[in-house]
Design brief:
The complex is a heterodimer of chains A (490) and B (244). Chain A is built from 22 helices and 13 strands. Chain A is α/β, with parallel strands linked by helices. In chain A, the strands form 3 sheets. In chain A, strands 1-10-7-4-2-3 form a 6-stranded parallel beta sheet, sandwiched between helices. Chain A has a 4-stranded mixed beta sheet with strand order 8-5-6-9. Chain A has a 3-stranded antiparallel beta sheet with strand order 11-12-13. In chain A, a hairpin with a 2-residue loop joins strand 11 and strand 12. In chain A, helix 9 packs parallel to helix 10. The termini of chain A are far apart. Chain B has a 4-stranded parallel beta sheet, sandwiched between helices. A 4-stranded parallel beta sheet of chain B has the order 6-5-7-8, sandwiched between helices. Chain B is α/β, with parallel strands linked by helices and 244 residues long. Classes of the chains: A alpha/beta (490), B alpha/beta (244). The interface between A and B is large, with 65 and 70 residues. Bound molecules: iron/sulfur cluster. The site of iron/sulfur cluster has 14 residues of chain A, from helix 14.
């Protein structure tokens, strides 16, 4: 008997990546990384606050965005069918992919059909999620990233650390070294004597990429949104490289998560205000490209839209967790998250880092495959306050923690040490008498550990506390004992 | 008005002086407060750690113990938020009306000047749950500003999480410690001798770090500052802070 085939979502989480606490430890030890992150997130946080404060209807815009996403997700099946009809009517071809393997097979097949051995790419989370570049490479097709930060990551054989600024963890000197070392192996080499001046770096990237834009016959993009009513697909970007990919090649293949659909063209009004202000802290992003099917003699003559599920319908089935599908990938939650700021994106071991990764990844791959992520948060709520579509990330985190604990219980016949401790604590707390007895024991026991009223070293799993903090010694008299002595009428 | 004190299991055990301060303060303002002995815990630790079934009996107990009171006051923003946001979803039972201390003073009793005197340099740290879940806003600061003799200093990036996060401090001890280090630096830069907040859990975390570094900065719960009446009643210099 063979086990049912597990869907292929392997690339959402990086194989072999350690759990968050271990991965974070490595990141925390890297002081350069921490400095880069602090600087970058601090800058963008201030910019976002300034531009969102400019709009007096910002809160209404957030509410509108959240409501639109809620409604669309509730009727997702309807809007997706409508999208397929509209795209087809406009001359495009729609493909449905249940998981990463299917999506990769579809795209690989389309590139082969077009007779191409290389493709240019617009920065896209969805294609990272399915591991498209690796799948294409296996089929002998080279995929060139054209977004500057994505190019740095690709040349550095690295992984993105941030949704919007994938190379946020690199500084200028590191980037210059990568360009000098790697560009020549992929195409036009870096100019001699390249400095780490941002303009020089940008110019080197421009020259390197131009060659690729002019040669490529196939482009692969993601999508920020797709309008069901018209079949229009859109990409929002800062550098213009995306627009080159979207207009020059003969064939355009867009891979899009099914949650990106919007009902009507007019809905863009809301999201084109929410997205740039929340992500780059700009009033408007420099380039917004939209395309509807194909137009004879203008732009790509073949357009394929791959609609990717890859765990999304399973996520939709969870009435609390599904709000994560409303995400517009602005990265505001990453930039305000104090945990992300210290650890960076790699610690999350997933294509989707930060608070949104902590709630989206476990749902896409199954909580048991990313069990440490819902716990990688203090539940401080900064992400919820920042999210332009009001995803209640702390609520989903707490919800997924419960699902992780449930899954643990189902898997182990014997409870874990933590579960035992939690059950014992619940038993104590369910009775004032037992609580009083435990309080007395704690006061007595702590006397053995304390010096000058402070506890400097705890045994067992609690050493995590005292490695960096003292613990106050519980006083001999609890409040309830004091109350009984002083306020109770006998 | 029948008012009950919900002290929280944690304050009861580790920071009983906060409870005594609430009693002292409310009695000074002319109100009687009761302490129902059946109370234990709001279930927050279990809920936030994913152990929901374990939290359910605690939530039921809470509703039973505090039924019949017009108001429940608690010197813990995070436990107040737990009751308000999650008790009903967990059990379907409508929880009693719980107020965090500063809400109770400002909104229910209508006072901002509680007649306190506390001649020390104090920085106020708005804890995440008071700030974002309860939205207490500037209520604690309004109360503190009316305290005689107090020298309130600004804390940079005050709305940044201190890194406590309940079991986060154990499960992700290294990240928590990194956040704590930055928090302590901001506290030191503020020049405060006393760091004040509306949650003893965050104060225990920050105070534990300050004590380990022998910084000399003490952590004191908001209730204790509001309960202080004259210089003599102010805390004597402790060995490193955290408690007095
Ligand atoms: S969860 Fe919200 S804040 Fe985070 S990336 Fe998505 S839309 Fe932006």
């Amino acid at each position: 008997m063979t086990a049912p085939q597990e869907p292929d979502r392997s690339n959402v989480v990086w194989l072999g990546a350690p759990a968050f606490p271990e991965a974070a430890r490595a990141a925390l030890a890297d002081s350069q990384l921490r400095a880069n992150l602090k600087h970058a997130t601090g800058t963008i946080r201030d910019k976002r606050l300034a531009v969102t404060a400019e709009l007096d209807d910002w809160e209404q815009l957030r509410e509108a965005g959240a409501a639109l996403k809620r409604r669309t997700l509730r009727h997702l099946d309807h809007y997706l069918v409508q999208l397929e009809e509209s795209v087809t009517r406009a001359g495009g071809v729609v493909h449905w992919a249940a998981d990463a393997a299917e999506a990769n097979a579809i795209v690989t097949g389309l590139v082969r059909e077009a007779g191409a051995r290389e493709v240019v790419k617009v920065k896209s989370m969805a294609t990272q999620e399915i591991g498209l570049n690796e799948a294409l490479a296996e089929a002998g097709i080279a995929a060139y990233e054209t977004d500057l930060a994505e190019l740095i990551v690709q040349l550095g054989k690295d992984r993105p650390s941030h949704i919007l600024v994938p190379a946020i963890h690199r500084n200028r000197a590191q980037i210059r070294d990568i360009f000098q070392r790697e560009m020549g192996r992929w195409g036009r080499p870096a100019p001699d004597g390249l400095t780490d001046d941002p303009r020089a770096l940008a110019e080197a990237a421009r020259l390197h990429l131009r060659e690729k834009f002019l040669r490529a016959t196939v482009a692969v993009s993601g999508a920020n949104f797709a309008v069901a009513a018209t079949g229009t697909v859109g990409v929002v970007e800062s550098e213009g490289n995306g627009r080159m990919c979207l207009t020059l090649p003969q064939t355009l293949i867009t891979v899009m998560g099914i949650e990106k659909v919007l009902p009507a063209w007019s809905d863009l009004e809301v999201f084109l205000q929410l997205l740039p202000r929340s992500s780059t802290g700009e009033r408007m992003n420099p380039y917004t490209s939209t395309w509807t099917g194909t137009t004879p003699g203008d732009g790509p003559q073949n357009f394929h839209l791959v609609l990717l599920d890859n765990g999304r319908t399973a996520t939709l089935a969870d009435t609390v967790g599904r709000q994560a599908l409303a995400c517009i990938r602005c990265s505001a939650c990453l930039n305000v998250c104090p945990v992300y700021e210290r650890t960076g994106g790699h610690a999350y071991g997933s294509v989707y880092p930060g608070p949104i990764g902590a709630v989206l990844t476990p749902q896409l791959v199954g909580v048991e495959h990313a069990a440490s992520l819902p716990f990688a948060s203090t539940l401080c709520g900064a992400c919820y306050d920042a999210c332009p579509v009001k995803i209640n990330i702390p609520e989903v985190l707490a919800h997924l923690r419960a699902r992780v604990v449930e899954a643990e219980r189902a898997r182990h016949r014997l409870p874990t040490a933590e579960a035992l401790a939690m059950t014992a604590a619940a038993g104590v707390l369910d009775s004032p008498r037992r609580l009083a007895a435990a309080q007395k024991a704690a006061a007595l026991g702590s006397r053995l550990l304390a010096r000058d009223g402070r506890i400097g070293a705890l045994p067992g799993p609690l050493h995590g506390w005292t490695d960096s903090r003292d613990l106050p010694q519980p006083p001999a008299e609890t409040f309830r004992a004091w109350w009984r002595r002083n306020r109770e009428q006998p | 008005m029948r008012v009950a004190l919900f002290l929280t299991c944690f304050n009861d055990t580790v920071f009983p002086e906060t409870g005594r301060a609430v009693v002292r303060l409310l009695e000074r303002l002319g109100h009687r407060v009761e302490f129902p002995q059946g109370q234990t815990c709001c279930g927050q630790m279990h809920f936030n750690s994913g152990y929901r079934p374990e939290a359910v009996p605690l939530v039921h107990r809470f509703a039973e113990v505090f039924a019949g009171y017009d108001a429940v006051v608690s010197p813990s923003a995070s436990c107040t938020a737990m009751v308000r946001d999650h008790h009903r979803t967990l059990t379907g039972v409508q929880p009693p009306q719980v107020y965090e201390l500063s809400e109770f003073l400002v909104d229910v009793l209508g006072v901002t000047d509680v007649g306190a005197c506390y001649p020390h340099r104090v920085a106020y740290h708005p804890t995440c749950h008071s700030l974002r879940m309860l939205r207490v806003g500037d209520r604690p600061l309004r109360l503190l500003r009316a305290v005689r003799g107090i020298d309130l200093v600004d804390l940079a990036d005050a709305d940044t999480c201190c890194g406590f996060g309940g079991t986060f401090a154990l499960k992700n001890a290294d990240t928590s410690a990194a956040m704590l280090a930055d928090t302590m630096q901001r506290v030191r830069q503020s020049g405060a001798e006393v760091l004040c907040a509306a949650d003893n859990s965050c104060l225990m975390h920050i105070g534990g770090g300050l004590s380990r570094r022998r910084s000399g900065v003490r952590t004191v719960h908001l209730a204790e500052i509001l309960a202080a009446t004259e210089p003599a009643a102010a805390p004597a210099a402790a060995t490193g802070g955290g408690r007095r």
